[in-house]
Amino acid sequence: MRKLLVLALVGLVAQLIDGSLGMAYGLTSSTLLLVAGVAPAAASASVHLAEIGTTLAAGVAHWRFGNVDWRVVTRIALPGAVGAFAGATVLSSISTEAAAPWMAGILFTLGAYLLIRFARPLRTDRVGGRLRGRFLGPLGLVAGFVDATGGGGWGPVATPALLVSGRMEPRKVIGSVDTAEFVVAGAASIGFLIGLGSEGFLLPTVAALLIGGLIAAPLAAWLVRIVPAQLLGAAVGGVIVLTNARTLIRSAELDGPARPALYALLAAGWLAALVLAVRALRRTHRARAEAAAAPAIAVGVPAEASDAASVSEVPADLAATGTPTPR
To answer: Residue 227 — left, alpha, or beta (φ > 0 → left; ψ -120 to 50 → alpha)?
Structure first.
């Protein structure tokens, strides 16, 4: 019972992160299950089965808050489902010994990507036009395959790519990616069911993760408007890197002083990424304040009034991401 309560809490925290950041539910949950000794295929299968419920709840919540672009959802979800089904089939056919370092390597790489991505400002200045199907289709296919084989990865692949395009509001990127993940999780679960059978799913674990995720989904859809994703992304990336580094170091059979030295190096990199993320967030806030104050100064409004206006008029979705919203 204690283990199930811990898993429910993990599901809650993972969904809060995922709903606020547009990624990391699968990464967080799969990483914990691997550390607990669950086989890679069973871990990914259980997480994806739980995600069917959590992503449905998240999609409905994001839709009610106006965070979903249905055109993007339809064009990215179906290729994502194809990639996820293929990835589940591949992972199901690999032995546990071979799959453990493979899956840890994917999670480690995605965690490092989060660290690098959120250590610098997210660019959303390329405004205009629509996202084309020839971009969304391959993106969904790759993201779905990585998601199923790595136990997570849909968000870390899809969300930054859409943010960098600069053609969607950050909150709509997060809402659309979370909503499309419902289809991806369903396709991955079917692939695991075919490859592993029903015994491949750890149903008590699925239930615990699902309950925690369902509780967190509505709150996460609201938090996406106020949580600084810049800092959250760097923090989550460091946790994923350090946790999966443990599996990789064991697979490489590193002993002696090399092991603590490598951990210290990774921890230093995480700390540096957090510092850079905070600086990037402050620079973005300062730039927004100066941009808001410039018109007031031009017409002779006192500096104190313009400063107050710059604070009060910052839209909530900007505070959530630390990035300019396309207009």
So the answer is: beta
